[in-house]
Amino acid sequence: QAHRMLTIDESHHTGLSTVFNTFSGLNPFHFTSYTEQLWLSAVNQFQIQMLKPEMVVADKIYTEFRLTKGLPIPLLRIYHQYHELLQRPTITAHLSNERECLLGILILFVNKLRRSVEVNIGNCVDNFIDFPKYFKNSSCVTGILIYLVQTNLKIEFLLQNTEGHFDEFPNYLSFKNDLLNLKERALCVQREQYTNWCNTVLNIIDGADSPLSLNSVVSPLFFNSSDGRLIVFFHDELVQLLRDARIISGLGFVLPSGIVRITSVAEDYFQVGLFLKQIAQFYNTIHSQIIPSQQPLMITSSFAFENFLRNPNLNGIKVLPDGRVKLNWQSPNELFTYVSKMQHLVESFSLEIRRLRRSHFHLSTLVGDLYDKHLRKSQSKWKNVLSDIRELIYRVELENSYDPSHLLAWQVHWDYQLYKVLEFWYSCCFHGFHDSLPDIQLDLVLKNDVLQFRPPLEEVRSKYMREIRYFLTIPRGFRGVTKLNIGLSNLFCQIMERNSIHLLNLISEA
Question: 0.85 exceeded by the pTM?
Answer without folding.
Answer: no
